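User: Please run a holo structure prediction.
Assistant: Happy to. Please share the sequence and the ligand.
User: Here you go; the ligand is NAP.
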Amino acid sequence: MGSSAMSSEPFRVGLLGFGTVGSAFAELLEQRAEEIERFNGRRPVISGVLTRTQGSFEEILAGADLLVELIGGIEPAREYLLTAMNAGKDVVSANKKLLSHHGEELFETARERGVRLRFEAAVAGAVPVVRVLEESLSATPIERIHGIVNGTTNFILTEMTRGSSYAEALAEAQRSGYAEADPSDDVSGRDAAAKMAILARLAFGTPVHLNDVCYEGIEHLHGDDLEYAREFGLGLKLVGTAERRQGGLSVHVHPTFLYSGHPLAAISGSFNAVTVESGTITEITLSGPGAGGLQTASAVLGDVVSVMTGGARPPAPPLPLAIIEDVESAFYVHLDVADRPGVLAAVTQVLYEQGVSIKSVVQRGMGEAARLVMVTHPVLESSLRAVIKRVGEFDFVRSTPRAIRVIEEEFV
Ligand SMILES: NC(=O)c1ccc[n+]([C@@H]2O[C@H](COP(=O)([O-])OP(=O)(O)OC[C@H]3O[C@@H](n4cnc5c(N)ncnc54)[C@H](OP(=O)(O)O)[C@@H]3O)[C@@H](O)[C@H]2O)c1
């Protein structure tokens, strides 16, 4: 211990939860305490730990300058954070589920009490996107955010691109520790949707609940789609998007094709990345490890230091902005059809009637059947869904048509 430790009081951190992230956080804090004290004047120490079997919340709260919540889930995490903030304590949390359901209540309490609520680790693991949005880009009018914010699904899609089936890729993700025994929150897109709700709130200042985010997972993707898409120069990612549209805000998560010039196209394995677009900055991309105890703990400790140095402000009040659901996008469309005259003309007629125009198309015969794969120009999702429904009713269509979004922008 350095001699300066005697010169000021330690900074007492009450730790709620001592699992994967909590235990890594406690270890990292101990390793880094001296260095933090050197530039900050106070030495952070863990003043109490709460788990299901040890510690008393009331005692930990009374004896701490700041609480770190690493329990997860809604209750009792919500109750503990509200109680701590109402008692005038700053708090740090990595809890995306809680923030995407009760963010406004927590932000409101932090604002009312004039305390800090930090949550860097709730969004993209070790990627410091929260701080960049709140501080570095706070004067930038953001137009759009795209994010690969779930490492498990990015790992699975990377494996599928290399030729694995969905089931093989999922099994490999579980073997390597990237996917949990029950991966449903990840593969359904729900985890990414929760993170996009939090990011959208930060970037656009308007309340976004998980229920406002339309999401679709990767469970129904076919290896075929990845193969065909390669012919168009496209790669597949689970992309979350939050963007200004028609005077409102649209937030959604879908499997999405990207051209190779898009910064997210290169993000592989379990990494996360977030792209921020604005007229003033063009595009900024942040990327790094998406999860893991130590990586997450490092983001949590960064939040603690930020509070210690007074760098973070209480959250700003919300702005009203409508949530828009029907937005334009380009689409990849895959049709299995009978190989006979008139098929292409019939499909083209439906596209024409819905105002959908085609950017590129590949048709391949396979005996009696043919595959018709195309990429459209941007079209309202409702028009594209109408095309899929009508085309699916033709007797020459052999299986349910598939449509996947395509992001057209490239930043090269
Ligand atoms: N793991 C990651 O890579 C990662 C990445 C980003 C964000 N996060 C977030 O970090 C948070 C913690 O995740 P984790 O993976 O560390 O979870 P975990 O390993 O399951 O640990 C949870 C801890 O909370 C304690 N706990 C559970 N219910 C409690 C209750 N009612 N009262 C008091 N303590 C309770 C558990 O106590 P016992 O020890 O007694 O069971 C355990 O110590 C979650 O919000 C998660 O979403 C995790």
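The radius of gyration is 24 Å.
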